[in-house]
Model the fold of this input.
Amino acid sequence: MYWGLPQDEIERRYRLVREAAARDGFDAVLVCGNEYTGFEGAVTYLSGFVIVHRYAYVLLPVDGDPAIVFPSEARYVGEHGTSWIDEQVFVDRPGEWIADRLRGKRVAVYGLDYVMTVRDYAAIGDTCELVAWDVAFDHARMVKSELELESVRDSVRINTEGFWVFLEHFEPGKTEREVLAPCEEYFVGQGCGRWTMDMVLDGPNGSALPEFKIAGSHVFGATECILPSLEVAGPGGHWVEVSRAICPGQPSDDTKRMLDAYEEYYAAAPDALRPGRTAHDAHRAVSKGFLDRGFHLGHVTGHSIGMTMIEFPKIGEGVEIELQAGMVLSMHPHAISADGQACLYMQDTWLVTADGGVPLAGLPMRIFDGTESRPGR
Done:
């Protein structure tokens, strides 16, 4: 999957991370990853290895060669030859190996709060200083290279087609899983493997309930509002989010008002997602139409996205990171009614360019009714 990544791209990634680590006074960076969907990408970003099962660490010294470390039980799980890192270590307790290698060092850790295993954290103990470093690591990789943007666009192509597949198979009387299954088949056929996190939100009388769920046996009704949440990474490993609402009947009054706010967001976003604006500025511009109508936002307005599903910076209140050309952002205001019984959640992947934000999917900002065909048909 990552065979043949150009050496200059590998060196670019290492340079960005090392410069940030040196700036913050660290001796090394330790990146943790596991098979939990969306949490494996940082390891892949620095090594080319795709975690199939269990977990792995990448150790990147500020000075010196990198190493990738696996628990012994994962020796034959995954294609280890796909990694461009020469030093590949298999040990019963990775934490003991890390403790020996990093003794007395100050170490920036990506995944300290959520990913590092308890047994390895305990084995490392106080042999070195471990410091949570997720935000700074993501900031170092938030501007994508042209090679990465090719991967992003391919993922968007796959995910946009996935929405059309969902719409093509959608009809009242089918179950959630019957409609989503052809999307998953298409995604796997396009090289996503298990890099999919697809869910649905639905509800009666033209309003979707605000809780995400795995597609199940619920049968779509003729008056429902359905929000497929389609999140995938294509063969290049870059996650994207693209989706729209479907309502075969009449949307509720709340849903119609939420759509009005979505149209305002979509009109404001190109200027809001411009280099020099902050993530806070973008959040304020995008959320204004929803808040003015009395809705609250139940999920982050948006966030950087890359080889990890959710990266920093968030597009949110008080986040003063300046946007830069080449950033890729997932935008999905989660509008929820005052009584908590209706929501609208539509997703787009945006590219920040010198001229402003550009939505990559090309889907119109609207609620579909299920009868539409792909453009050109």
Notes: The mean pLDDT is 96. The domain at 146-368 is CATH 3.90.230.10 (Creatine Amidinohydrolase). The radius of gyration is 22 Å.
